[in-house]
Amino acid sequence: MSEFSVTLPSGKVWVPKFVGEINQDKCIGCGRCYKVCGREVLEMVGINEDGEAVAISADEDDDDDDEYDKKVMSIANVDNCIGCESCAKICPKQCYTHVPLAA
Description:
This protein is mostly beta strands. Helices cover 10% and strands 28% of the residues. The strands form 3 sheets. The protein has a 3-stranded antiparallel sheet with strand order 5-4-6, with no helix packed on it. It has a two-stranded antiparallel ribbon with strand order 1-2. A two-stranded antiparallel sheet has the order 3-7. A hairpin with a 5-residue loop joins strand 4 (42-47) and strand 5 (53-54).
């Protein structure tokens, strides 16, 4: 199978790479990637002492910090990713892995 590619108006061929995974051990939960992604691909989750993801309340007043040890980014809607890689470009800890889509 060949990779999915796009021929740009300049004639250059671009192979989009889509979000594959986020290294949550490296993630510092800064939210920069979330802010640059307008496609609702990402969501912030809490990681509890057992290493399990727990939901974080959108209302900061209801956010119970006792339920988790740290906040990290996770992939919520992978099918919404358009392959722009903006999340990886802005990530200060290089947590992202992107992969081309097989056509």
